[in-house]
Amino acid sequence: DVKVTQxxxxxxxxxxxxVFLECVQDMxxxxxxxxxxxxxxxxxxxxxxxxxxxxxxxxxPEGYSVSREKKERFSLILESASTNQTSMYLxxxxxxxxxxxxxxxxxxxxxxxx
Amino acid sequence: GQNIDQPTEMTATEGAIVQINCTYQxxxxxxxxxxxxxxxxxxxxxxxxVLDGLEEKGRFSSFLSRSNGYRYLLLKELQMKDxxxxxxxxxxxxxxxxxxxxxxxxxxxx
Lengths: 114, 110
Description:
The complex is a heterodimer of chains A (114) and B (110). With 114 residues, chain A is an all-beta fold. Chain A contains no helices and eleven strands. Chain A is 0% helix and 53% strand. In chain A, strands 2, 4, 5, 6, 9, 10 and 11 form a seven-stranded mixed beta sheet that branches. A four-stranded antiparallel beta sheet of chain A has the order 1-3-8-7, with no helix packed on it. Chain A starts with a strand and ends with a strand. Chain B is mainly beta and 110 residues long. In chain B, strands 2, 5, 6, 10, 11 and 12 form a six-stranded mixed beta sheet that branches. Chain A binds chain B through residues 31, 33, 35, 40-45, 48, 50, 90, 94-108, and chain B through 8, 30-31, 33, 40-45, 48, 50, 87, 89, 91, 94-98, 100-103.
């Protein structure tokens, strides 16, 4: 059964803290994605990775960085958390194929920055 | 820029039919996807269209016609458990990058 897991369902951090969000997939997918989801704005792409050690900026990369040292793991880092980064963070993975490249999502991490 | 539009909210009664339209302007097109997302949960895949035509999966079906601009998700025989947000997404390149709409909140009433 396909599975994407995220390290925490709920997280509360203080302004200025460094925050790590971890995502692991067990499907041997090449692609991994980090989104944030806010009411009325839908899913917005922060960063994505096509392969190990590869990363590309999405639509809203400011304030975030990522790391992909192993194929199954994709980490999102908030170098210095701010209140406007309070959001739901969703990780996804997919096969790199020109056909149906359905994205599979993790359960999400609801981050609150105080 | 890239833009995907879908209605914000739709309300219907149990047993009814709902059609959720999706319009998009993207730099590329490699398929149209629909996801269902219940409150507080992750999106789950419903349907995929890349060629023109109808894809049917039980009570849900999705339609794509790239030439005349018709793209929609059809929910038939609505049940209370269908109350959720429905996300339209376009795969914009062959590498797998998606652009998502903001979602349509479907409310099913008794």
